[in-house]
Write a structure and sequence with these properties.
Layout: H1 7-20, E1 34-39, H2 50-68, E2 72-74, E3 78-79, H3 84-93, H4 97-113, E4 125-126, H5 130-145, E5 149-159, E6 164-166, E7 185-194, H6 200-203, H7 213-223, E8 225-234, E9 244-249, E10 260-263, H8 269-273, H9 279-291, H10 294-298, E11 306-315, E12 320-327, E13 338-341, H11 347-356, E14 364-365, E15 383-384, H12 395-409, E16 412-418, E17 423-424, E18 426-427, E19 437-440, E20 444-447, H13 475-478, E21 479-481, E22 488-491, E23 495-496, H14 498-501, H15 505-508, H16 521-527, E24 530-536, H17 543-557, E25 566-572, E26 574-577, E27 580-581, H18 592-599, H19 601-610, E28 617-619, H20 622-640, H21 651-677, H22 681-701, H23 706-720, H24 725-734, H25 751-754, E29 758-765, E30 768-776, H26 784-791, H27 793-799, E31 804-810, E32 814-819
Parallel strand pairs: 1-2, 1-24, 3-4, 10-12, 24-25, 26-28, 29-32
Antiparallel strand pairs: 5-6, 5-7, 7-17, 8-9, 8-16, 10-13, 11-12, 14-15, 18-23, 19-20, 19-22, 21-22, 26-27, 29-30, 31-32
The structure holds one RNA strand of 85 nucleotides.
Length: about 800
RNA sequence: GCCGGGGUGGCGGAACUGGCAGACGCGGCGGACUUAAAAUCCGCUGGAGCAAUCCUUGUGGGUUCGAGUCCCACUCCCGGCACCA
């Protein structure tokens, strides 16, 4: 009698053994080809929920698969440990963010171990430790030296709840804070920025990397490249030195139709151009738009309004004077912060002009246009009218012709505009990497010298719910000496966006313990770039874009020699519960611990992979997981319960059965291997289930000799090892194999052995299935009539007395008779 | 509004390049074992029909010997973007 499958006993036992033997530690001395398999490191929120498992278990399975395939696999784990929740906990419960975070790290390490992954813990990275953030600061200095970090005043997204600024990427489309959901408002602040826009064009290219189309599109849209022309409108205003206003347009072909000019309310020329009689109204409008929240201002439903500032400029193409307005639908940060209003051919301009009685002359005639007024803006192509020497040109051609003309005259220039803004990295919070800068009354902004890094976060900061960083009030932190002149200086009290920490952590895993550099160059050369990066798609335009920028910037600084951090990207879906996304507030969070305790990590791992395609995600279902548990139990029995060949087995029928067994085995190896490569874990597991179902019938019949059986079990266990590392290790040992199964090679399939000898040929009459016959796989078309005559009695009945008009034969699949 | 992705049994999901729709699992039904139940094992399980057979992949059309798969129109769901001139 064999003992029961008891994951509670075998799982901790093997995990301890693997750890003791350092089975999963990796080294650069290994001659095998390297494979860097990376999963996005988790934020130190405190508890590992099933969503973390969904990110980590399948990627571990794939990493284990690559390992068995003979790769030297780096599959590290660490913690994204800076960020607001730690600080909020400090304010709310009086725990220091460091203490709170490290407690969570400790708990999460324990929970992560229960997954049974091949993490090499000797390479763990925790982003809030000084030995890590020293280098985050160092990178800031490098970017600053390279002119890629700058301080600038800009209207920024301010979250009143988090009391900090947010990057554009952290503001949800409707104007809410990505983290807390509060409505974001605008404030003018001096902030630190990274010049990600300098890399806009390079970031548009995904050549040489294998990323999901979806993410590429999202990044391209986010960057928002558009080609157009900057056009100069003349101004002549007493006391104003500027003689022109430049606007950006993608439709220079419509320039003759410009009947007004619109500035963003914050545009610097507004104050100087506004005439005294308009000043009160203009100021009131500017004030109003500043106080609107981002949502209100950006709402497409909001009626377009604006104020005439009293000044005019000249449309140089037709010499006409056009009034200058301000309106908050024009954004200072895009293009030149000013647009020409062409009401006939732009929907917004049309609404604006109609509201204020501005003329709407047609310059692009729609097909069949008879000179009538337009009921709405016509934004399609057409023929130019009312456009001087360009009349009669198709708008496509006019676009180029007018641009050429403007460039010749020096009135315009073709340019490219981007939606992407520079990356705002300042955060008015304590729990982040300090920005290593000093403000000196004499020397201005002075970087902290490298030898003085890290600028440490003071431990004795006081956390009060004032909404301001405790750093600001920490005298010893703030007051310092200027590194340049030695005089009194004040430290920057803002810290860096945590996305800065996550833009380089994957570099640190390669050499986590070097202390005189962020990484060891030789090890970077060995491991980078990451071969497979997996994680949620919610990072599409944040972490994933920032990291690409970061790597390109470091490359240009001379620190790296590759262009892209992640060669292949894969986004897993989301696990939901009770038809809803899991969240603490809904109380539907699935905690893996109880399932691991009851059913075992192997079952939870396999279940997560089986329930749906990985990229799709799906619903956690308590009753479905029992199917996996039952299956592993059946495998336990199948392997351990002794195999008895049938006593009546003759060499002849044993040979047939063994050939069939070997065919099934090799077909299974092929399916499992191919699904593993494609990360199609759900079908990979169904292939293994079909295989075990088949093996059960072979065993029941005792159809093959004992050695053939043993060999098959050996393969089954190896195919299952990445998915269920504990049970397979136990069974491997109990079937008298040397430790460890995880050092065994991945089974290879043989196409010859996997080939079917017989196939089922479908017989159709007029496209309807009428019969199935079993024929040798090698059957030739000439042999078919005979075989059909003998075997396809049912189909033949349908052919009786009919005239065969056509015969379609698809070798290996079907034959279709078209009859009348 | 724009850009993606999707709609297949009671449920999660399979289906190569246009070629047996529903693999695998859950659930359900029936049976074995048991004093009984749980667990386990075996069988059946898209719908209608006694059956032959017919119907069936969101809806409507088309291409084809043949369509879940390709084309057109519509519809619903999910994700992203949303005054970017």
């Amino acid at each position: 009698m064999i003992d029961k499958y008891s994951p509670q006993e075998i799982e901790p036992k093997w995990r301890q053994r693997w750890e003791k033997d350092r089975l999963y530690e990796v080294s650069e001395d290994d001659p095998k080809p390297k494979y860097y398999a990376l999963t996005m490191f988790p934020y130190t929120s405190g508890d590992l929920h099933i969503g973390h498992w969904y990110a980590m278990a399948p990627s571990d399975v794939h990493a284990r698969f690559k390992r068995m395939q003979g790769y030297n696999v780096l599959h590290p784990m660490g913690f994204d440990a800076f960020g607001l929740p730690a600080e909020n906990a400090a304010i709310k419960r009086g725990i220091h963010p460091f203490t709170w975070t490290m407690q969570n790290v400790k708990n999460m390490r324990r929970q992560l171990r229960s997954i049974g992954a091949i993490y090499d813990w000797s390479r763990e990275v925790v982003s809030c430790l000084p030995e890590y953030y020293k280098w985050t600061e160092w990178f800031f200095l490098k970017l600053y030296e390279a002119g890629l970090a700058y301080r600038g005043k800009a209207p920024v997204n301010w979250c009143p709840q988090c009391q900090t600024v947010l990057a554009n990427e952290q503001v949800l489309g409707s104007g809410f804070c990505e983290r807390c959901g509060a409505a974001v408002i605008r404030r003018d602040l001096e902030q630190w920025f990274f010049r990600i826009t300098r890399y806009a064009d390079e970031l548009l290219s995904f050549d040489g990397i294998d990323w999901p189309e979806r993410i590429q599109i999202m990044q391209r849209n986010w960057i928002g490249r558009s080609e157009g022309t900057e056009i100069s409108f003349a101004i002549d205003h007493s006391g104003v030195p500027e003689k022109e206003i430049r606007v950006f347009t993608t439709r220079p072909d419509t320039t003759f139709g410009a009947t007004f000019m619109v500035f963003a309310p914050e545009h610097p020329l507004v104050s100087v151009l506004t005439t005294p009689d308009r000043k009160a109204e203009v100021d009131a409008y500017i004030d109003k738009s500043r106080h609107l929240s981002e949502i209100e201002r950006l709402s497409t439903e909001k009626e377009k309004d604006g104020v005439f500032i009293g000044a005019y400029c000249t449309n140089r193409l037709n010499g006409k004077k056009v009034p200058i307005w301000i309106a908050d639908y024009v954004l200072l940060s895009y293009g030149t912060g000013a647009v020409m209003g062409v009401p006939a051919h732009d929907e917004r301009d049309f609404l604006f002009a109609r509201k204020y009685g501005i003329p709407i002359p047609v310059v692009i005639a729609p097909p069949g246009w008879q000179g009538e007024a337009l009921a709405q803006a016509y934004i399609e192509e057409g023929t130019l009218v009312n456009s001087g020497q360009f009349n009669g040109l198709p708008s496509q051609q006019a676009l180029g012709a007018i641009s050429d003309f403007l460039e010749e005259k020096g009135w315009g220039k073709r340019t490219v505009s981007y939606r992407l803004r520079d990356w705002l990295i300042s955060r008015q919070r304590y729990w982040g990497a300090p920005i290593p800068m000093v403000y000196c009354a004499k020397c201005g902004i002075v970087p902290v010298p490298e030898k003085d890094l890290p600028v440490l976060l003071p431990e004795d900061a006081e956390f009060k719910p004032t909404g301001e960083s405790p750093l600001k009030y920490h005298e010893q932190f703030v007051n310092t000496t200027c590194p340049r002149c030695g005089g009194p200086g004040k430290r920057e009290t803002d810290t860096m966006d945590t996305f800065m920490c996550s833009s380089w952590y994957f570099l640190r895993y390669t050499s986590p313990n070097v202390d005189d550099a962020p990484f060891d160059n030789a090890k970077i050369k060995f491991w980078m770039p990451v071969d497979l990066y997996t994680g949620g798609a919610e990072h599409a335009v944040m972490h994933l874009l920032y990291s690409r920028f970061f790597i390109k910037a470091l490359r240009d600084i001379g620190l790296l020699d590759f262009d892209e951090p992640f060669t292949r990207l894969f986004n897993q879906g989301t696990i939901i519960a009770e038809k809803q996304k899991m969240s603490k507030s809904r109380g539907n969070v699935i905690t893996p611990d109880e399932y691991v305790n009851e059913l075992g990590a192997d079952t939870v791992r396999a279940y997560l992979m089986f329930l749906a395609p990985w990229e799709q995600g799906g619903e956690w279902n308590d009753s479905s997981i029992s199917g996996i548990s039952r299956w592993l139990n059946r495998i336990w029995q199948l392997v351990l319960d002794s195999y008895q060949p049938n006593k009546k087995l003759t060499p002849d029928n044993a040979e047939n059965a063994e050939r069939e067994l070997s065919r099934f085995t090799h077909q299974t190896i092929r399916r499992v291997t191919q699904d593993m490569e494609k990360l199609r874990f759900n079908t990979m597991l169904s292939a293994l289930m079909e295989f075990t179902n088949y093996l059960a019938t072979v065993k029941e019949a005792g159809a093959v000799a004992a050695p053939a059986w043993q060999e098959t079990i050996d393969i089954l266990l190896r195919l299952l090892a990445p998915t269920a590392p504990h049970i397979t290790e136990e069974l491997w040992q109990r079937t008298a194999h040397p430790y460890s199964i995880h050092n065994q090679p991945w089974p290879q399939w043989d196409e010859t052995l996997a080939r079917d000898e017989e196939i089922t040929l479908v017989v159709q009459v007029n496209g309807k299935l009428r019969d199935r016959i079993t024929v040798p796989a090698s059957v030739s078309e000439d042999e078919l009539p005979q075989l059909l005559q003998e075997k396809a009695a049912r189909a033949n009945a349908y052919l009786q007395g009919k005239k065969v008009l056509k015969r379609v034969y698809v070798p290996g699949r079907l034959i279709n008779f078209v009859v009348k």
